[in-house]
Amino acid sequence: MEDVFGAGDLRERVLRAWAESPARFREDANAEEDHALGGYRDRVVIELAQNAADAALRAAAPGRLRLTLRTDGRPVLMAANTGAPLDAVGVEALSTLRASAKRDETEAVGRFGVGFAAVVAVTDEPSIASGAAGVGWSLERARGLTEAIPGLGDELQRRGGHVPLLRLPFALDEPPEVPDGFDTVVRLPLRDDAVGSVRRQLGQVGAVLMLALPALERVEIDVDGDVRTLTAEHRQPGEVAIDGGVWRTVEAHGEIPAALLEDRPVEERGRPFWQVRWALPEDGLPEGTPSVLHAPTPSDERLDLPALLIGSFPLAPDRRHVAPGALTEFLVDRAADAYVRLLSELPVSPKVLGLVPGPVGAGELDARIRRGIRERLPEAPLLPHRTRGRDAIAVDAPAAFVGALGGEDAVVGGLLPPEWPARSPALAALGVRRVELADVVDELAAVDREPAWWHRMYEALAGAATDALGALPVPLAGDAGRLVRGPRGLLIADGVDPAGSDALGLRFVHPEAVHPLLLRLGAVEAGPRAVLADAAVRAAVADSFEAEDPDAVAEAVLGLAAAAHVDPGDEPWLAELALPGDDGELYPAGELLLPESPLRGLMAEDAPFGVVDGETLERWGPETLTAIGVLDGFALAKAEDVNLMGLADEAETLELDDEDLWADDVLRRIGAQDLPPLVPEFAAVRDLELVDDWTAALKVLAEPPWRAAIVDPAHVMLHNGMRVAVPSYTAWWLSRRPVLDGRRPGEFRLGGDESLTGLYDVAPEGLDERLLLALGVRTSLTDLLDEPRGAQELIDRLGDPDRSVRRAQLGVLWTALADAPEAVVEPPDRVRAVVDGEVEVVDAADALVLDSPDVLPLLQGQPLIIAAQGREVRLAEMLDLPLAGDEVPGVVESEGEKRPVPGFVKAVLPDAPAGYLAHERLTVDGQNVPWWTRDGQIHASNVSGLARALAWSTGHWTDRLLLEAVLRDPETLPMLLAEDDLEP
């Protein structure tokens, strides 16, 4: 067949060049290998589609492409396209790795003429046919021609027989048949290892390819008979439909300034044109769409934007990445301009916020494009009424409120409608100024609207966070148009006539503006009790003595108290209200007595109490007057969450006598705490320090409601949630005063525990036991020692010679003191001791603590402190007294005979020693003694002494008598053990 494409001449020139310069062969082989395995790897389908698009452009006709893969038998890929047919110039370009046939085609997609090298990655025998003519390439034939060239054998062998096959075209005698309706066909018999890659590339052909190659209107993909078709319908400028999916597009192009091409290759400088196109799908990018820049076919530059970018960005030699430089920066700016224009041409909708790119890019190029877009967005008219972002305001508030602010009677200019989310980062990128709800609320104070308008505002804000509404303006009743900032403390009338409280300076919300939101923000429903709790009423009560009309203030407050049914002590501050006494003078209500009050007879003469005016008593009655603090009996102080540390430090006060000392005592009882402990519910009797007649006063206090303030303990809440019971303030105060027969309650005892007999007198009659216990009357030795200073009190009373203590009682007391684990006492000056069997109070310096009974014969006339075995060391340390055993020399002066301890002794004392020293006469320090153990050995002079020595040395002192009986008559052992078993 005629060589219409000049393939033979091309081939001869190449072979001649290789023969003349083997280095040229290496260059061509390296170049083809770089393209096939580098920049154009896995791109054979894209490159075939790109060539088809260029052919359509050259023919100025709609482009169609059919891609057919057959894998039954020898696998082959066929690409048939419409458009300008292949010519000799094209064949030369395909066979010349360094030159492009498209250098003068400004609209051509391919820019370098080397993309066809991608076929080398999948085939050894590519061929192309247009009409009846065709050209092909063959690795086998090319290798044969190369082997014939002298000097290339070694190089060819080093390359494993691979030659740059595209450099050696062959005219085809039997070219591939061009399918009907197409102008050109490319046939690629596939290597077996390339089938999977080609199949995958065909599966990836989709809308993105049609957008990148707009010259193609139809692409058919046929894989072993499974056919699918892509069509592109350009409906109107800026809109294209591909397989039913609608894409909005925007394009910009122009000529590249010459200065930007100075560092680019000659091929590029010959085509100084740029182009960028954005394609935005209505329903989001299709699944599997590569998030990369298309330049114009896919690169490896990551772009994580919601639209597809296709642009003529300069590529690096690897054909995969954008080349850095001024031209790239120029195109980044053009792409940013085009993207903003794309958004501007969309219908105004909050959906545009999803198209605003964030600041963080997927790569360097992505970050630069994002930065360029975000710099331009504030000037773009993307918002309602085509407002620029820099001119708009977004209020972070409930939608209804935003709608009300920006309605026909707009309060805020440039306000975005509520469907535009104020907290969207995209709005910030658009330059929209976000205004917090609290700032808008603050500005509303300057708005002049009728009360009903404010009601609508409150309704719109019903779902808003209350922390932003603290300064919400509220119209007041009375003065027309008067606004105040913040609802907190305002009153909402509920069965109360605001006019009746003028003297109290109360502020009521205008009835037409009343809304439940105001209650949430601190307004108070103004029932009688709520009005009574208003700060203005408190202030009026506190200033009632200085008021222009004290009677009017008293009238208003008494009316509220009567309507609210206040119980005495509920509102202690009411006791400061100025009321007239029967002497015509004004008194605080808390310093007035009812005429029949029992306090009149038991208070001291200098107590600051008056008697309430008779007319006032008749007008309001005793119940209302006592509710505000007028005294019928003792006043009760009530409070919640009392801070004990605050009371102790005098930072807070309940106006109670010695309240700081009570708080100190409670804090000592409960120990150190991480957080200030509180008394959730506090009640105490007032004015106890003014009592003169305690016999009469206690009879009053023993009755309700004062009794509970004495007998019920206070409960302290700790930081860990535990509650600790402590003496109430009233009980504590009374326990420290001479209120029982002129003596403190703690100086008396109840009957029952005989261990305190003689140390405490029995409490006087007339008061019940529970009240006496609360006052601190002693009940038992154990309870006494549990008191913080109970041990010290017991030691002091033991040293009091006016008190009497029985011999049997004294050992119990000393033992209990030694056993008290937390007892801390001051060493006493006088102690109660045993002297030769008699109980005496002696100077502490003369007393010893008995630590072993074997020294008793050596201590005749010596005062001894005696407790149960094992307590002597603790007691000596507590009293700062020496042990008796340390005060005698304890020298054994007689000789003893070693004897074994009888074996039957083990039945009584299992740990008895094996032997002892028997003395005919045991002499220690010149005196005869029955037994001795202080030198570490068992000495005894008789059976009784041996029994005691063994019992003491083994720690079984209580078994000494049993052991003595066994030693005297061993045959009685079974009976004696049986009797011992009966011991409780």
Would you kindly provide a written description of the structure presented here, covering whatever features stand out?
The protein has 984 residues and is α+β, with helices and mostly antiparallel strands. Helices cover 31% and strands 18% of the residues. The protein is built from 33 helices and 40 strands. The strands form 14 sheets. A 12-stranded mixed beta sheet has the order 5-4-3-6-2-1-7-8-9-10-11-14. The protein has a 4-stranded mixed beta sheet with strand order 35-36-40-39. A hairpin with a 2-residue loop joins strand 31 (830-835) and strand 32 (838-843). It is elongated, with a radius of gyration of 55 Å. The N and C termini lie far apart (134 Å). 39% of the residues are buried. The model is unreliable at 98-113 (pLDDT under 50).
